[in-house]
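Final report, Chapter 2: Outcomes

The project's central promise was a pipeline that accepts a single protein chain and returns its three-dimensional structure in a standardized token representation, suitable for archiving and comparison. That pipeline is now operational. To close this chapter, we reproduce one record exactly as it appears in the project archive, with the input sequence first and the structure output second.
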Amino acid sequence: MTYPIPHTSNSSIPSLVFIHQYEEHHSLQNFRFFECSDNNSYLYIYMNRGSMRLITFEDNYLVESSNLVFLPYSPGMQLKSNGCAMLHFSILYLSGNLLPCFYARYMAQSLSPVLKPLCSNGFTEILTKLQDIPSIILPKSELYVSRLLTDLIADTVFARDLQLTYSDVPDYLLAIQKQFHNHLEENYTLDGLAHMFHVNKYKLIKEFKEFFFLPPMQYLLNLRLKKAQELLRLSNLKVSEIAKKTGFSNTNYFIHLFKKKTGFSPSDFRNRPLSN
């Protein structure tokens, strides 16, 4: 169901958060997103019930009941059923100058756009209020929608901060995460990490994914490729030097993985305009 909320994306107050479309779906096994004309828009998904997998150009993520997803929109994204017959999820297509700042803060300490908040009542309350707004575009309704959306995204960022601050992440996992961030160039194996941190390898894999939403080696790979993108943009280092600095001993393998992840070779990525 698509809710007739006023489309506020052409507002004269561009610093706020605006909505293109709000949809709610029940028991849809496979879903392709609305083709949004604004290339700078963002998706906000709330999984009320069930389990689906979000497929993006770069990766895929498991989205379970009461999970939130906040990420930039890109064409070709899909949600696919994870075997659940009972599904209920909501999707918002958003734009606004505040969103890149919110997203940067949201992703500052995590590589996954998926969040399981400690309490979801506030989010469902705001979504319900959005559904109840009449479709007539009035100045008051436009500002009210923008305020609700800003509260929704700000609360989401705050929930991520709370999760990272107060969740009972085992010390050894925080130590592994710190090791990855501070020493990307080192060669890691699961057996080596288990030995280094005195933990069972299978426990390490299970708990790392539970708290950081990705298996440890996938988390490390994403971190390395993210750092490689940064070095390509901000330094004059050769591609081979960047590969070595980010933990790839084989430059050709680095180029292969980088292109698979981003759709561009490292050289093409470096030469792309920043606005693209």
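Archive annotation: The first strand starts at residue 2 and ends at 3.
This record, like all others produced under the grant, will remain available to the consortium after the project formally closes.
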